[in-house]
Structure formats: C-alpha cells, structure tokens
Design brief:
homodimer, five-stranded antiparallel β-sheet, alpha+beta
C-alpha cells in the first residue's frame, strides 16, 4: 500500500532516519515503519505530536501567519520532522541527531502529491 | 546591550529575516528588533510561542527524547526559528518564506555561548 511504501522509503533511503509514521490529526496512525532494533514507542509519539501540531496551529493562527506546513524539532536525542499532508493527516519522521535532515525534508516534500491524491 | 545587539545582528545580516526577539520562557521579552516596515506583533508572538515550547518540551519529555534545543516552524507566510538559550530564555527569529534559513540557524547557534554567559 502506498502509505506503507512512503513511510518505509524515507527511513531506508536517508542517513540517520530511524522511524516514520503517517497519522491522523486525531492521533490514529495510518502506517508506521521503523528500522530494525529501533525502540521508539511510535504510536505514543504520534499522539504527543498531534497535540503539538494543534498547539502550533493555534499559535500561528492567532498571529496571522497562516496555516502550518512543516515543523522540525531538535532534541538531545532526536531530530523530529513533522509535515502536514492535509487538514486530517500528517507525516512524522524520527532521525538521529546527525542524520541527513536536508534529504529527509526533500523526500518528504516529494511524496506529498502522491499522498494527497490518496487521502 | 548584548541582547539588543544579538537580536539586531541576525535580522540585519540574514536575507529574508524580518524580526527577532529574546524572551523569557514565562513570556516576558528581554529584547526585540524588527526591520523597518515590518508589522508583526512581536510580544504576542513571543507569548504564543513560549506556550508552544512548553507543549513541545512536555511531548519530548514524555517520549524520552531529552531536552528540546531548537524548533522551526514553516507556515504559509513565515518561517519561525526558536532556539532555547537556557531553561529560562529562548530566541525567536521570524523570516520570510524564502529567507536564508541555513545562515540564520548558523548565526543563532554562534551567538549562544555569548548569551548564556550573560544570562
């Protein structure tokens, strides 16, 4: 299925990518993929970040900056890239701190039209 | 004062940078600077994004990804770069959509030790 393919593709093709998921903004996952040995509770992560997206969207709306399209989060352990697909779905990619962020972002954007056409 | 200098420096040196602020995590601004003609309600923006930072930090803590260091937000109109200085303060940079994000990020990181020494 296209959703599994997209989730897997970016993880396998980008240096440092660990896991990926496509998720409803309501916190229900559509597809998830992680590299072997990666122990991240993907579903909880997706739910936490769907809350974050709602908060960022609210903040962006209140200052008139228009709809949110992308959010990237750098923490001590991970780099997390969130990309809005449409008002109902988003993609989430979890990378190691030294991963190839630029390539991940490029591949995510490239996959958007395909995903939008399906959803 | 060093805080004014840092806030001004990145806005004047980076293509597409519009405004910058250094703010307490409690929503009280320390310094603000914007290009002439830029009409963004900087104080409200800072307050909104200090709430966002709290939400992201909570989410990152709950999935064990460690402390947040940087957050970048791409919306229809702006690119917003938030950088944690220390547990009490953060920097916020607002850029046009096509601004030089890489240079902004580099300059922000470079100014961190100076700011941390002062705060």
């Amino acid at each position: 299925m296209i959703f599994e393919d997209v989730a897997k593709d970016v993880v396998e093709r980008v240096y440092g990518a660990l896991a990926s998921l496509i998720m409803g903004r309501d916190g229900i996952p559509l597809s998830m993929y992680h590299k072997e040995g990666v122990e991240i509770e993907l579903e909880s992560l997706g739910i936490e970040y769907s809350n974050v997206l709602a908060e960022v969207n609210r903040a962006s709306g209140s200052i008139g900056s228009g709809d949110l399209s992308e959010l990237s989060i750098l923490t001590e352990k991970y780099m997390i890239l969130l990309r809005i697909i449409n008002p109902d779905y988003f993609m989430c990619l979890i990378m190691a701190h030294d991963g190839n962020f630029g390539k991940a972002r490029y591949l995510r954007r490239k996959s958007l039209p395909k995903l939008r056409a399906e959803l």
